[in-house]
Amino acid sequence: MSRILVWFPHGFHAPRMGSQVRALELVRALCGTSHEIHLASGWNPPDSGSGWPLEAMDAMRELGVKDVHVHRSRLDDLLGWASRMMVGRRGNAPIGAWRFTPPGQVRWFGRLAKRIRPDLLLMNYSVSDPMVVAAGFDRKRCVLETHDLVLLNKRMVASVERALPPPPYHPEAVPRELLDLNWFHRPEFEDASDREIEVCSMYGLCFCISSREAERIRARGGNVVHLPMSMACGPVGNSRDGAAILAAGPNAFNAQGCLWFASKVLPSLRARQPDFVLELTGALSGKVAPIDGVVPMGVVPDLAERYLQARFAICPVFGGTGQQVKIVEAMAHGLAVVALAEPARESPIVHGVNGLVCRDESEFAEACLALWNDPDMRRRLGEAARETVRTELNVDKYAARVRGCLESRIQWK
């Protein structure tokens, strides 16, 4: 029996973020093989949503994981915090920075790998690369799940955070240029991921959620497989007669996109459709000032009920790397999604078939108006959206592709 050691930096048993959903599906896929699976992770408070309470570890073992190994070091926590403070809001920490891989964690992982003696390392995120070196592994015998380009992502996030005022956010209190759809088309972002792409190309196999990022790694000679986000479909029976919905965590890209919608789209939309209402769910809703037409819902433990009632979903985000999981999630629950062109490129949306893709605020407003007033269109696009996820992005197909890649795309046994 071959042995696989998987690294993910924090807990994911009860996923709240897209990366956690992805990690859980990856481990499920591996547990469906004959290999012995070990999971290594970092420590977070058990009640943080990204920690490892005892019941989460037990659940992983029930899933088929041999053991869960969690590293905790107060010194590493302090060093990581200090590294983040030194970098500040510049967002230019390199691979090897303590904010990603503090020294104690790297040494611990190296010792763990030597004790377990895995045949294959499966690492999540390129910034975990120093841990592969500490384990004494040839990268060509390792699989890297990239998720997204971390260094580029951090630089983009930092640029938005520098421009955002303290919460609660209101569209009239942010710089106008922050709400320009060309905000990220600047030279400072052009070379942010060059080193990261080079590191990714060194691995025996890379899984990429983004087709564009996969192409960049492939162009550097990397062995890469494009594996978009998988998702289980939600319950059927949508009424599609409630408000529009935006599910948004508290990250900078969501804040920027929400403020863009409130500033550029909502005023003209409400002028033409006074009863238009957007439900804003997730932690971001607690950081946004009151806005006419936006109903803050807070963190909803189970979004399925909200999706069943919602007319359609919107994705006004125009920054970020990887893939917008909120698009796939809404589609899996039978909703048409109105999205800007940038995130739609890495989504399963086909304009006019299972969703609507918009180039600017005028098209976004028109798309929202069309769906708001046309129940037949909402049903047709929503049902097509669910069917797209069911046939193209279902979890069983994803698991089969992961297992097939381990058998045919990398030499490790």
Q: How would you describe this structure to a colleague?
A:
This protein has helices at residues 18-31, 54-63, 74-87, 103-116, 129-134, 150-163, 194-201, 211-219, 252-272, 304-309, 325-332, 341-344, 361-373, 375-392, 395-408; strands at residues 3-8, 36-42, 67-71, 120-124, 142-145, 205-208, 224-226, 244-247, 278-281, 294-298, 313-315, 337-340, 355-358. It contains 15 helices and 13 strands. The longest helix is centred in the middle third of the chain and has 21 residues, at 252-272. Helix 1 (18-31) crosses helix 15 (395-408). By secondary structure, the chain is α/β, with parallel strands linked by helices. Strand 8, helix 9 (252-272) and strand 9 (278-281) form a beta-alpha-beta unit.
